[in-house]
Automatic annotation (TrEMBL):
Superkingdom of origin: Bacteria
UniProt cross-references to Pfam families, sorted A to Z: Peptidase_M50
Protein name according to UniProt: Zinc metalloprotease
Origin organism lineage: Bacteria, Pseudomonadati, Bacteroidota, Flavobacteriia, Flavobacteriales
Annotated organism of origin: Ichthyenterobacterium magnum
Matches recorded under NCBIfam families: RIP metalloprotease RseP
Length: 446
């Protein structure tokens, strides 16, 4: 069921982004009386799932969900329609239009993606507001599980005070500032210290098997009892919190391995918090030292138990436009920082580049409209920025050649554009293979 929910979100988000991106090209093309021969969601290699011609345009849905396209007459694009290009230019063709009109047509897709992201941020700010975890309410620091962080000197219980010169106010500030970070200031046992990060910090993280960074320390709250658990028949409920085992306090889940050490194949006495009631139960430990419970729980319940404080903000409709803009610019800047790191081989960030599986994994296993729209807004920005890269075959490549024409007064020859398009295709195919190859490598290495 989780897979169905995730794939549904993935396809819905992808479809929305593709259709609106292509509309960004389609609408100005029609306004400038340029013929659009095809408008497709997904690629129709060999055949289409659906197609219908309305006027001069064939609208359709392909079977290969790797993108979409509009085929604009008289334009050297992925169709490589050399037969049409060999004929005399027609007034309704792309190549016959003034450079400024062609520039607007090519920038239409990314413009719509940027506008879409901003609009989404406005409405999720208005509809859901903001919630975060105040860093000063995290009393006993973070759970450090990642070997990369441990090797650098971080320990469970460290409090994060600053990343570079940016003071950490909320938990989300950490992930938002880790890209390009050179050092992190922590508080350990009441003393401040600075831990320097290596230049290839992102590469080390990407190569590791554990992806988490600074995890919140939460109680051992039971989300599910495994079918194979020795305690399956006992009165154990979702939301129960195990607070002690054989008299040893278990305040945080990260203390479990230490408390359970040497208890394989034994019975243990536990204290369990259920709502406001305290219970005692004898539980069985299997040969692997496990109780057979999957941990989990909601941040709201953790807040009620006093583990941290959630700050909440609500915005009026007018305020949401300002807050939405702040979120848009912050996300755009953050993604720009990621790209900068990826294109710098010294950071090793390219190891973390992912393809369609990486995008699929971003979506939640439960349906949340708030999470869905937030992810879609980010992907819209990502799609826009990537399309602006000056690579032939991408919008950015077409924009680059059009700007050259406008500045120099000389239009690149169609033969040159055809060759550039082929080079662009090779680059794109290489990037797609690399990104999705990374996904496959990570899947097998884990």
């Amino acid at each position: 069921m989780e897979f169905v929910i995730k794939i549904s979100q993935f396809l819905l988000s992808l479809s929305l982004l593709i259709v609106l991106h292509e509309l960004g090209h389609f609408i100005p093309a029609k306004l400038f009386k340029t013929r659009v021969e095809k408008f497709y969601l997904f690629f129709d290699v060999k055949y289409s799932l659906f197609k219908k011609k309305i006027g001069e345009t064939v609208y359709g849905i392909g079977w290969l969900p790797l993108g979409g396209y509009v085929k604009i007459a008289g334009m050297i694009d992925e169709s490589m329609d050399k037969e049409q290009m060999a004929q005399e230019p027609q007034p309704w063709e792309f190549r016959s239009k003034p450079a400024w009109q062609r520039l607007i047509i090519m920038l239409g897709g990314v413009t719509v993606n940027f506008i879409l992201a901003y609009v989404i941020y406005v409405f999720i700010s208005f509809a859901y507001g903001d919630s975060d975890i105040a860093s000063n309410s995290i009393k006993d620091g973070y759970w450090i599980e990642n070997p990369v962080l441990k090797d650098l000197g971080f320990k469970t219980g460290d409090k994060i005070l600053a990343i570079n010169d940016y003071k950490i106010v909320n938990d989300s500030d950490i992930g938002g500032n880790i890209i390009g970070a050179e050092n992190i200031t922590i508080n350990r046992d009441g003393k401040e210290q600075v831990i320097d990060l290596p230049e290839d910090f992102l590469g080390q993280l990407s190569s590791g098997k554990i992806r988490g960074l600074f995890n919140l320390r939460i109680p051992f709250m039971i989300a599910e009892v495994s079918d194979s658990s020795l305690n399956k028949s006992l009165d154990i409920k979702e939301g129960d919190v195990i607070t002690s085992i054989n008299g040893k306090e278990l305040k945080y889940f990260d203390q479990l391995d230490e408390v359970m050490s040497g208890l394989e194949n034994q019975k243990v006495n536990t204290t369990i918090l259920r709502g406001n009631e305290t219970l005692t139960k004898e539980l069985s430990v299997d040969k692997n030292g496990k109780l057979g419970f999957r941990p989990g729980g909601s941040t709201k319940r953790f807040e009620e138990l006093g583990y941290f404080k959630i700050t909440r903000k609500e915005y009026g409709f007018g305020e949401s436009f300002v807050v939405g803009w702040q979120k848009f610019t912050k996300t755009l800047s953050s993604y720009g920082g990621q790209l900068k790191a990826i294109f710098n081989p010294k950071t090793g960030a390219y190891k973390g580049v992912g393809g369609f599986k990486a995008i699929f994994d971003v979506f939640q296993p439960v349906w949340s409209w708030e999470a869905f729209w937030g992810i879609t807004a980010f992907l819209s920005i990502m799609l826009a920025v990537l399309n602006l890269l000056p690579i032939p075959a991408l919008d950015g490549g077409h924009v680059m050649f059009t700007l050259y024409e406008m500045v120099s007064g000389r239009k690149p020859s169609e033969k040159f554009l055809e060759r550039a398009q082929m080079v662009g295709f090779v680059i794109l195919i290489a990037l797609v293979l690399f990104a999705n190859g990374n996904d496959i490598f990570k899947a097998f290495s884990n």
